[in-house]
Design goal:
The chain is α/β, with parallel strands linked by helices. It contains 10 helices and 7 strands. It is 39% helix and 18% strand. It has a 7-stranded mixed β-sheet with strand order 3-2-1-4-6-5-7, with helices on both faces.
């Protein structure tokens, strides 16, 4: 099998169907979908099964991704969060093709907000510029969109489950240290939710990420004693984030 998609979830009955439906529309058919669920109390598991996914027991995002990857059979593993929408039916095929053309072992995409507004557009574009500027020095691969060759994932023993914040960036940086080639894909952007921004506040969340970045560079990733709370699930999407058609309209026509 070419591709295994792994999605960690907890109480994602509202948004998970949008992601799974966008996967079903993909032109790439040689794939499997694995939902690693952290014991949801809503209909997340039932929805996942009804839309063709395999469900395994998960946990926090890092451990959940590892549990899903343990049963994955694809040559490449794609990690997505439940509040992501794939913006084009060519998204998966084009991302894998670009990885092959550029001989990448690990990759992510530029991002765009699903609920577009001037402030969020600017914040996401600033992140894109930062990620591209640092991709050859300190790779950043947000956990909501990571493509990795299965042999690389296994070689680094997956996500470090001791890390409670920025385990995704640690994952990318450890992979590069073993010789994996990392890159940010240019062919497509991926649509991401702004629900965390709306709940925590733009400025507060930006400061949290800056603090986490400085801590990683100076002291390493957080394994304990994190000065702020990390919440998994318990986010309410904005009304606009439910429509995958709107997300598709927002993507520029870009090619590899």
């Amino acid at each position: 099998m070419k591709l295994s998609i792994v999605i960690p979830t907890k109480n994602e009955a509202l948004l998970l169907p949008k992601l799974l439906e966008s996967i079903q529309r993909q032109e790439l058919c040689d794939l499997e979908v694995i939902v690693a669920d952290a014991y949801s109390t809503d209909q997340t598991r039932e929805i996942a099964v009804s839309l063709g996914a395999r469900v395994v027991d998960g946990g926090l995002p890092g451990p959940g991704r590892n549990r899903g990857a343990e049963v994955a059979t694809g040559d490449v593993i794609a990690f997505f969060d439940a509040d992501v929408i794939l913006p084009s039916p060519r998204f998966l095929a084009d991302c894998l093709a670009e990885m092959d053309v550029r001989s990448l072992d690990l990759a992510t995409c530029r991002v765009m907000p699903l609920d577009s507004g001037a402030t969020d557009d600017l914040l996401h574009e600033v992140y894109n510029l930062f990620a591209i500027a640092t991709e050859r020095v300190t790779p950043h691969a947000p956990g909501f969109c990571i493509f990795v060759r299965a042999v690389v994932h296994r070689a680094i023993q997956g996500f470090d489950e001791r890390i409670v914040f920025a385990e995704d960036h640690d994952y990318a940086q450890r992979a590069v240290k073993t010789g994996a080639v990392f890159g940010i894909l240019r062919g497509h952007r991926v649509g991401v939710s702004v629900r965390r921004l709306e709940k925590e506040g733009r400025l507060k969340l930006a400061l949290k990420y800056i603090y986490g970045e400085l801590h990683m560079r100076l002291k390493g990733p957080f394994t304990e004693g994190m000065p702020f709370e990390y919440e998994f699930a318990n986010y309410t999407p904005s009304p606009k984030e439910g429509a995958s058609e709107e997300a598709q309209k927002g993507e520029p026509n870009e090619t590899v």
